[in-house]
Amino acid sequence: MRTPELPFFVYGTLRPGAYNHDRFLLGRTAAEEEAELPGAVLHDGPGYPYVVPGAGRVLGALMTAAPGAYGELLTVLDRVELPAGYRRTARDVLRTRDGALVRAWVYEAAPGAALGARIGSGDWFNRVPGAPRTP
């Protein structure tokens, strides 16, 4: 079965300005837009966050692959995220600029992931007052 070419919703170390963005996404995206994931809760993890379904919202960015780069981007993100305790699921994400709901891939916590404390703000960059974007 062919994987649909959906954009990716990133909410932690892959967000623009965070330390893994340039390492894994730079040059592979055509658009990066602010977005939020409704119906989700953000938890701290071992140096990176986890999303789980729940009553809340998570702030992040919607990443659209550059022309011809989708397969490479999907492979890179799956290699980074799946072994780290995530599963890739299709979810509706709210694009901030126009309020449109966009279907996107979200890497959520897989069963058994080591969830830390809930991040009440839903924003990895604002998990602790004064926390750096590059932990």
From TrEMBL:
Pfam family, one: GGACT
Gene3D superfamilies registered for this protein in UniProt: Gamma-glutamyl cyclotransferase-like
InterPro entries named among the record's database cross-references: AIG2-like_dom (IPR009288), GGCT-like (IPR013024), GGCT-like_sf (IPR036568)
Limits of the Gamma-glutamylcyclotransferase AIG2-like domain: 8-124
Protein name: Gamma-glutamylcyclotransferase family protein
Organism encoding this protein: Streptomyces roseoviridis
